[in-house]
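Sequence, please.
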């Protein structure tokens, strides 16, 4: 009987070895044949040059902040307050926070913790409903004073409103904001975003330690929301493991295609945005297998997306992967602000990110991905993959033109 048991164990071990070997062969076959069009260079940049493995390898170690914690401005804090709100979604929040912190620190003012305003009048939420208050306050401790609540004597109607350009410089503050602050004592800030939403490190040399800290070291999702988004990311990873490949997040929303500019092209022949058919053709042309797991930022399915699902059946939206039970109630994706939060963080965490439209969402997602060394970012193009590898790599990565490269090393 003992001999029979040893034989059984040996047989099981043999079967197990063959299964493992089979899986290895399948994976090697998958990597070398199905995804042979893409490779990652020593610098971690995506190259469409026809070799093995590529962007599907594990992410490299996260970069470390290059900045030092800024020293507080001499002269201490004044009695004035800077009021502002976060609007339009997380891709705007990053920039709005940075501008408010830079202005308040330069003026020596107290920064009031912002509310988060939605697209509808009643969609107003406290900062702590979305972001980690303790993390925010601690990250700026000793740099700028933070007030959790607006002083009751300050009425928004009576405050002087000031529009500041995104990535506001000290020179601009000294000339246009400081005189008003000295006269009025309190100001309400609103960040103005120019038509060009690119962020080039070489063009903005003032991007110093304070700006880096404000953009990349202050905002973190509050714990429950962070957990829910994490569960959604893990579900996408589990689905992608079943097909033995990566999961791709595509920023594709039908409403953005209604803009006339979407069908226009830039000086290099690239469109400003791409529809479901064009995204599907691009993914197939660059070598993504039919079973690739794809996440779309679109809220709710529409027939305009059917061509993509026909090419890639494993295409999902937020509604498909949202958690059940209590956690589903926390994540009310019918509210646009929560939907945008989900999109922003899933696109930041995906194995591969494909922006179907240029803009601030693309820019600030890339910033978060650079910080975590997730540089697998492919920009759609109508050219064939063999024509030019540079046509598919985000120029933020290939040219290191994103300001995040000034903040991390």
């Amino acid at each position: 009987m003992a001999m029979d048991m040893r034989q059984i164990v040996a047989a099981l071990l043999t079967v197990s070895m063959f299964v493992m070997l089979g899986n290895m062969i399948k994976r090697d076959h998958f990597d070398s044949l199905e995804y042979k069009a893409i490779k990652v260079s020593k610098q971690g940049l995506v190259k469409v040059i026809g070799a093995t493995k590529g962007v599907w390898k594990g992410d490299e170690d996260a970069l470390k902040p290059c900045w030092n914690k800024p020293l507080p401005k001499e002269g201490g804090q004044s009695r004035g307050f800077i009021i502002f709100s976060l609007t339009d979604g997380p891709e705007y929040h990053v920039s709005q926070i940075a501008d408010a912190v830079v202005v308040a620190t330069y003026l020596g003012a107290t920064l009031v913790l912002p509310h988060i305003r939605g697209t509808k009048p009643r969609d107003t939420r406290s900062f702590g409903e979305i972001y980690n208050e303790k993390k925010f306050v601690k990250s700026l401790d000793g740099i700028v004073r933070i007030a959790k609540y607006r002083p009751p004597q300050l009425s928004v109607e009576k405050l002087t409103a000031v529009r500041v350009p995104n990535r506001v410089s000290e020179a601009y503050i000294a000339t246009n904001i400081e005189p008003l602050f000295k006269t009025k004592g309190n100001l309400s800030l609103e960040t103005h975003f120019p038509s060009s939403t690119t962020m080039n490190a070489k063009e903005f040399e003032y991007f110093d330690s304070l700006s880096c800290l404000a953009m990349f070291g202050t905002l973190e999702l509050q714990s429950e929301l962070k957990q829910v988004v994490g569960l959604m990311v893990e579900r996408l990873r589990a689905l992608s493991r079943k097909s033995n490949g990566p999961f791709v997040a595509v920023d594709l929303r039908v409403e953005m295609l209604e803009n006339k500019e979407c069908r226009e092209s830039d000086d290099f022949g690239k469109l400003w945005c791409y529809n479901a058919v064009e995204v599907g053709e691009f993914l197939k042309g660059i070598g993504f297998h039919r079973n690739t797991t794809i996440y779309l930022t679109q809220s709710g399915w529409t027939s305009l997306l059917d061509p993509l699902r026909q090419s890639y059946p494993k295409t999902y939206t937020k509604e498909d992967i949202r958690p059940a039970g209590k956690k589903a109630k926390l994540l009310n994706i019918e509210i646009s602000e929560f939907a945008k939060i989900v999109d922003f963080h899933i696109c930041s965490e995906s194995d591969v990110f494909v922006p179907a439209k240029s803009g601030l969402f693309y820019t600030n997602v890339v910033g978060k991905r650079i910080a975590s060394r997730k540089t697998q970012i492919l920009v759609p193009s109508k050219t064939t993959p063999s024509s030019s590898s540079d046509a598919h790599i985000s120029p933020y990565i290939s040219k290191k033109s994103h300001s995040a490269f000034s903040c991390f090393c």
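The longest helix spans residues 2-34.
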